[in-house]
Amino acid sequence: MPASYLLQSPNFSANLKLPSKPSTPTATPCSRSIKASSSSSSSNSTPASTASKGNNIRDEARRQYLTNPPQNQNFSAKYVPFNADPVTNTESYSLDEIVYRSQSGGLLDVQHDISALKAFPGSYWRALFDSRVGKTTWPYGSGVWSKKEWVLPEISSDDIVSAFEGNSNLFWAERLGKHFLEMNELWVKHCGISHTGSFKDLGMTVLVSQVNRLRKMNKPVFGVGCASTGDTSAALSAYCASAGIPSIVFLPANKISIAQLVQPIANGAFVLSVDTDFDGCMQLIREVTSELPIYLANSLNSLRIEGQKTAAIEILQQFDWEVPDWVIIPGGNLGNIYAFYKGFHMCKELGLVDKIPRLVCAQAANANPLYLYYKSGWKEFKAVKASGTFASAIQIGDPVSIDRAVYALKQSNGIVEEATEEELMDAMAQADSTGMFICPHTGVALTALMKLRKSGVIGPTDRTVVVSTAHGLKFTQSKIDYHSNNIKEMACRFANPPVSVKADFGSVMDVLKKYLSKTPK
């Protein structure tokens, strides 16, 4: 039975160095007690807790680096046009360049030197990643930076801006699976249990770290800007505040929750409330960043994908490197579906696993351009005018990462589903009734799962992971409205409103007896 928490490897040095020649650790793939000869020196295995008095974890990491510098870590990464032919493509850019599009105007992708990474077997990478879990060693205590060699291999640890994000809970949704879906292997990856309450932290730590590096190199970067439906601005403002970098956010007026709006304000961002939707904000920020020294932080920037892909690697870790059958992801601007594919694909390509799961992208019916494209047989993509949805973070009608998403779905034999407003709110309420507290976007993903279970596409024994992208506490008003039966033209079938009762013993007893008589034993 896989653990529902990240694996611990207490006997494996958190500072494991890459050997000068490829070597296979002496343990089996699922071993939790692995030691490597390259980490045997006492200075290299010193835990952060024994750091010199007065040093912090960043100081200790610097000392370790100077005492035992990395040997032959010739890992590198660069920007290339997305989905470019690896044989004929000649266009590439350093990650230290400020560039968002290829010469043809297409998306860029971060391409790693796979041949250098392949010099080490899959068992080595599994052991290395597992060894860093649960540590405070800078920067490897982060679920993102514990995979540093696969993320930004050339960045100095001194430049990294991290809140030790990632390492989020993989929750066995036992009652939801059995009671509502007749499934034994339903899991929920709670990416919303994070520093700012959403999965966006995973990508933002990478982007802001690179900006921090660029500013130290005296590149023309005054600050970082984004258009947002809420979660992106929260993550950007928090990480920029941590690094002392100005952040500028464009938010669609009256279209995000108060809980989301207050986060960038509290973190000191310069907030523009714009009388348009997300797509309008996105157009404005792209124009602004082309004229001013403001670094673009939206998912058009491929750096964020590098952080977000680590959630896929975490899922494999949490299953003892066994591959689930399905992973279901809510989709708005569509960078995340590609990020998960990229993480799974890298693990397969580098020998950590032998296959990848099938991916499902779930969209709100009120903002469903990918779903319509999929249902047309991928014949013609048409942007849509997104209507209001409780899943406000995915209320996007013209997604930037459409090409990335289509590629990921085709490569993983994936599926696209949609959820109406009533379906997603009912699904959210059902999940909450089993002990969770999920966001409406997770309700979209659960609706997709329910439809695929009903049609028999997903079987009762299929190991299925639903990605929960944000914390339910960001969307309490939608829950209040639902349980108050206060949503127009919605039955709110699973509403659980409070019962008003007089303040006397008899009245309370009458209400409780009635409740107990209806409650299943």
From TrEMBL:
Start and end residues of each stretch annotated as Disordered: 1-57
Signal peptide, first to last residue: none
A GO MF label: threonine synthase activity
Biased composition (Polar residues): 1-14, 21-30
A GO cellular-component term linked to this record: chloroplast
Database matches in Pfam families: PALP (PF00291)
Low complexity compositional bias, start-end: 31-52
Subcellular localization(s) per the UniProt record: Plastid, Chloroplast
Subunit annotation: Homodimer.
PANTHER family, alphabetized: CYSTATHIONINE BETA-SYNTHASE (PTHR10314)
This protein's name: threonine synthase
